[in-house]
Structures are given as C-alpha cells and as structure tokens.
Amino acid sequence: MLKSEDFKNDNNPARQVTDTTPTFRVVKIAPLRIVLVLDVSGSMNNRINNLNQMSTKFIMATVPDGHFVGIVLFESEASISAHLTELQGIHVRQSLAESLPNSTSGGTCIGCGLESGIEVLGGNGGIIMLITDGNDGHSEKFQGVKAELIGKGVSVDTVAFGDAADPKLSNLSRDTGGIAFLYNEGTNSTGLNDALSATISSRLGGSQDVSVTVASVRETSPVLGSTFIDESIGLKTLFYFLWTTSPISVVLHRPNGDVIDSLSPNYRKDGGKNLVVIEIDDIAEPGEWFYNISGRPQLVEISVLSSPSDKALPIRVMTSNSGDSLISEKLAMVIIYAQVMQGYRPILNAIVVAIVERPSPYPPVQVKLMDNGAGVDITKDDGVYSGVFIDFVDASCPNCRYSIKIIVRGVNGTATVEAGGKKDGVFPFIREPMDATGNETENVGPFVRVVSGGGFEAPMTVPEGDIMPPSRITDLRVLNVSYDQTVSLSWTAPGNDFDRGAADEYDLRYSGNFSTFSRDFRTGINVPDGNIALNGNLSSPNPFGEQETVLVHMASEEDNSTYFFAIRARDAAGNEGAPSNIASVIFARNQMVTTTSKPSTTERSTTSVLHPATEEVYAPKLHSFNGLAVGCSVVVVLLLLVLVLGIVIVRRKATKGSYTINGEGHQNPSYEMNE
User: In sequence order, what are the residues at sequence separation of 6 or more whose Cβ sits closer than 8 angstroms to the Cβ of residue 15?
Assistant: First the structure.
C-alpha cells in the first residue's frame, strides 16, 4: 500500500486526530446536466436521420424527469440549438426534441462544438455527449478546449460514429472521466442507442427513476419477435420501432392476449422521425410480449424500456472492461465484466453474453461471461460475471475500435438470489436469517436486461499463430484424504486460449518444501512418477468451466509427511498457464496406539478458493490416552472406572479417520505460486 501513488514519497501522511466525534452529512444525487454535442457536417448526411431518431428517444424516454439537457450542433462552426432545459412532462420533452438537427453541411470542428458545450453548461461539472463521424480540422483548438474541460471537471462521453471518426475521441473520454463508445453501423448494430442509454444508466444506475432496457435489436422486416417484462419493472413501459426507408405497421400482443395496434390510443406513428411508439398505460403486466412488424423489407431497430415498479427491487446490470491496459503486441486480451444485482443481492446462474462489435467488415463475436471463480473470474457466486475477448481483427489500423453490448437473461427456475437478504435496497450490515423453508436461495423468475459495455481501441497488428496460454487454475483443492495416503484433488478446467476450449494437458507437481516450491514451480516432482500412483487423466483436459478430479497415492511411509501440490495447464502449441494456488496435505501417524477398525475418509468442503490461496487438509492422526495416576489406594474402584472410560475414548478417536485442524471450514493463509 505504501508503494501506491496515494502514499509513496510521504504523500498523505497520517493525521493526528484528537476529536473522534462522528459527523454525518446527508447527501442526494444532484440532477444531471447533459449537453448533446452533435456533428452536423456534410459527412453526416446519410446518418442524420438515425442521429435524430436516437436523440429523440434519449430526450423523450431515456432521461428521467428532473434532469437537464441542452443541445449544441457543430460543423465548421458551432451553434447552441437549446440551452439547458429541465425535463418535466411530455410537452417540454417534445419541444426540446424539435431542436434536434435534420440537415447537414460544412466541415468538422470538434473543438468548436465542445467549446459551445462548455458555454451551455455554465459552471463547473456536467456531462457532454459528443457524437461525430469525422476528423477534427482544428486540432489546436481541440487541445485547448480539452484542457478547459479537464479544468472544469466536465466529463465527455464520445460516440465514434463509424470507423473513420477521429482517433482522439477515446483519449478525450479517458482523460475527462467519460465513456468511449463505438457505433460501427453494422447491419445488426444498436451501438448508438446503447451508448445514449449508458450515459444515463452509468450515472444513475441505482435510481428507481431510471428505466432499464429489456430489448435492443436491429432486424429486417417483416419481424415477429418478443421480449419479457419481469415483475420488478413495468412502469412507463415504452416500445420503440424505428424504420429506415418506408413506414411500418406494428401489432403488439400483451401476455393476457389483448392486442395494441394502430387504432389504439397509446399507439403513435411519427412519419417525420420514422418511428412508431407504443406507451403502456399504468403497469405492464409481467410476461412475454410479442410484436409483429409488417412493411417493406428494411432494417428496423426495436428498443423496449421499462421503469422499476414497487413490487420488487429492480434487477440492475453494471459493466466495465479492462480497456487497452492488457493489449500489447505480444499478448492481446480484454477482460469484460458484468455485475448483476437485485438491490445488494447478487443474482446467480444468469446467462450473460457480451456481443463485441468489431471494425467493418468483420462480424461481431460473442463472449460468454461466467461467475464460476475460474479463468479471469476471481470470485465464484458474487454476481460479477467475467470473460475474455481475444478475437481482434487480423489487420493493422491506427484506431481499431471495438464496442461491447451485454445481454443478461434469467431463465425461470435457474437464476437465483440469496434468500432472507435485505429486499428494501438498504445495505445489509447484519445478515438476516435464512427464510422459513431453509432454502439458501430463491428464484428471481425470468428476466432480460440489455446494457452497453463501453468500448476500447486496439492499435495493433494481431500476431499470427497460437500465442494465448490457458488460464491460471485458481481453485486447486483437496477434496478428501485417507489412511492409505490417497489424496483426492479437484480443480476447474482452465480452457485452451484463456477461457476458450480445452487445454492439451496438465502439469501436476508436488513438493515437500513449501518455500522452494512456492518460488519455483519447476522444482516440484511430476505426478505421476516412479513412487506415485495416479488414478485420473492429466492428458485430456475437459473444456473450460468443467470440474476435474484425480486421485493421487503417495508412497511415503514416513511419519508426519507434508506434501504441497500445484498444477498448470499447457496447450498443443506449448503455451503454459501460470502455476495454480498451492494445496497441501499432512499425513500424521502415532504408533503408540493401534486399531483394527477400518479407517474412514474425511470429506472436505468444495468451496472455491480465491486467488491466490492455499488449502490444508490434515490426514488421519491417532491420539493415545494416558490414564491418570492416582496415588490414593482408597479410590481403586474410581481409578478402574476412569481407565475403562479412557479405553472407550481412545477407540472412538482411533476410528474417526482424518479430520481438519481448527474445525470444519478452516481458512488458511494465501500464497502466491511462482514459476
């Protein structure tokens, strides 16, 4: 800790505190102040309708009441189209949406747009959402405005509209504390809509007023599709259908069988903005909603929003990624995270998939995110799902951009939360008791959530050949041991390329010297060797995420033998994963007492061990009993009773077999294994 930037070189020295009286300050979330800074240069000509559609949805539905939005348009120069306006009610929103652009001309001066954005915000702080498709023609102005943005504490979210957008956008977001997004305009891409939604959800994700997205897709009409509304949402539910060339008709079927069509009062078609909006009165009932879109073949974007109801805490998804910190010419990967929670309770066993959009013309790829404590996922069942993206385009480009969309599904009967926990959104300082049925988890029912996972850049040429190693095994553990010195080891299969596929073989080793073994894995002895018998398979690993188990029989006859085990995976190209955590076992004998009872085997907990970790299991140890020497001859009868009782106790202990030290569930110190 002392080596961190916060404390090294005597930064932030300890204070002398004389008064420890606590003080409390009640705070609440301040209204957001957001300025849309929109590119209306000539290159946006074929994109202006899409920009208008998505910005309209942002103003009409995405931003909750009580927050402020302004609009700046820029090309060679910039103009303020609307000053900050507090969004309250449909009429204010419609009036603001009329200030959005519908025509294009001129060049591109990003710095001009940002400068006007600062003017609209007025004081310090605030958010600018910059959407552009071009390169800045006034770089000197851009750098000056960037310094002003940082000085005023203004965060800039950027959307790179197409692959040719200015490469400085990502750095601008990073340096101002904003979020960088990509909209590559692929056939099925919903990147612009997802980015605008994430600008709000990333800042107000815990608020009851913020709507959640349960559908965000782009399909070719005619379309017959569906989405699911769960019981935690249902207020202010909006179905958006945005066409590209020709008007469409939509028929919406409610779960109860009722139909909403163009004759319904809550059905609105806007030919000027190419959209159909269906607003559900009161609360949308839980269940599957079907939509039927008819019209000429064309791309139609479908977006469904719904706000939390008071029936249950909303299910929220927060995302992040490692960005370019793990990208290099030697080894390139990005770790994607999605935290799925209901209040403060993690949702387990959800299906979480990241869709990564790549530069044109490369198709998107899917990455499955897991919460199993294996691979890049550090902790099992904490609600944080993790996965690795390695499918970079095989080309060299100065600003190869990638965008991430996260889709989370709960399948009825599978997705669960901890039972008996806090359900009112208050942090559970004291854990409540288990529910009356004794269940540790309860079902959350089916649900769907769609969120943006941000974006990243990979300015590199992808190396040829297989250079990706298997993931590090982080949960090697001893399941059980027995008197014949047989040890059962278990771990989670690590995959071939990080968490993809299956490795080629395992390298399992043991040592009697922890100090040497923990520093250098190669000093360990391979299993099996001439003195070790193995029941299991180390040459055909299972696919990532599956459980592996082997039995190892240690041939040593020495008393009080201690063994340390570690393992790593290797792929067919010879790439080796990092050595695992260390699991240890102690065999202790006491020859003072013998028994003819058949020894038993002690079962160990299979709970995953966090990285790094060491697991210790103590094998059978027999205890002798020493009778008390009683010097007084008048209590001979009492002495005999004590001796008889002692013999009974000895026999009971001798038949118990192995046991764990310090009771069941003993946690051991963590150790790092080096190669």
Answer: none
- Token pair, residue 29, equals 């979330």
Rounded-to-integer distance, Cα 518 and Cα 565, Å = 10
Pick the closest to residue 318 from 441, 179, 424 (CA basis).
179
What tokens does 656 get?
A: 């118990």
Instruction: Determine the pLDDT at residue 396.
Output: 61
Q: Give the Å distances, CA to CA, from 382 to 379, 442, 546, 615.
A: 6, 15, 19, 21
238: three-class secondary structure by DSSP: strand
Task: Please tell me the distance from the alpha carbon of residue 332 to that of residue 276, in angstroms, as a whole number.
Answer: 43
Q: Which helix (H) or strand (E) holds 592?
A: none
CATH of domain 477-620: 2.60.40.10
Confidence of residue 336 (pLDDT cuts 50, 70, 90): very high
Which string of DSSP letters, residue by residue, matches 311-329? Answer: SSPPEEEEEEE-GGGGB-S
Q: What's the average model confidence in pLDDT over 327-340? A: 81
Domain with CATH 2.60.40.10 in the chain: 477-620
Reported as half-sphere exposure (CB side, CA atoms, 13 A), residue 260 has a value of: 21
Give the C-alpha separation, 304 to 294, whole Å: 18
Quick one: 287 exposed, middle or buried, by C-beta within 10 A (0-12, 13-18, 19+)? middle
Query: Which residues are bridge partners to 547 per DSSP?
Result: 492
Numbered ranges of CATH 3.40.50.410 in the chain: 28-200
Stated pTM of the model: 0.77
Instruction: Categorize the per-residue pLDDT at 329 as very low, low, confident or very high, splitting at 50, 70 and 90.
Output: low
Distance CA 295, CA 278 (A): 17
Instruction: Look at residue 647 and tell me whether its pLDDT is greater than 80.
Output: no
Class for the domain spanning 209-311: mainly beta
Cα separation, 642 vs 625, whole angstroms = 11
| Class of the CATH domain delimited by 28-200 | alpha beta
Residue 509 half-sphere exposure, CB side, CA atoms within 13 Å? 22
pLDDT tens digits along 9-51 = 778 888 777 888 888 876 677 899 999 999 999 999 999 999 9
pLDDT of residue 409: 95
104 three-class SS: coil
Question: Is residue 368 within 8 Å of residue 391, measured between CB atoms?
Answer: no
Q: What is the DSSP string of 519-569?
A: H-GGGSEESS-TTEEEES-SSSPPBTT-EEEEEEEE----SSEEEEEEEEE
Note whether 604 and 478 are within 8 A (CB): yes
| Cα 264 to chain centroid, rounded | 41
pLDDT at 322: 86
Q: How far apart are CA 211 and CA 236, in angstroms?
A: 8
Rounded Cα gap, residues 347 and 385, in angstroms: 10
Of the spans 52-61, 303-312, 397-406, 642-651, which averages the highest pLDDT? 52-61
Question: Which pLDDT does position 500 carry in this prediction?
Answer: 85
Per CATH, domain 315-457 is 2.60.40:
yes
What distance in Å separates the CA atoms of residue 221 and residue 245, rounded to the nearest whole number?
Answer: 11
410 CB-near residues (< 8 Å, 6+ apart): 230, 315, 347, 350, 351, 444, 445, 446, 447, 448
Question: Given this model, what pLDDT does residue 630 score?
Answer: 34
Q: Identify which of 536, 525, 523, 518 has the alpha carbon closest to the alpha carbon of residue 581.
A: 518
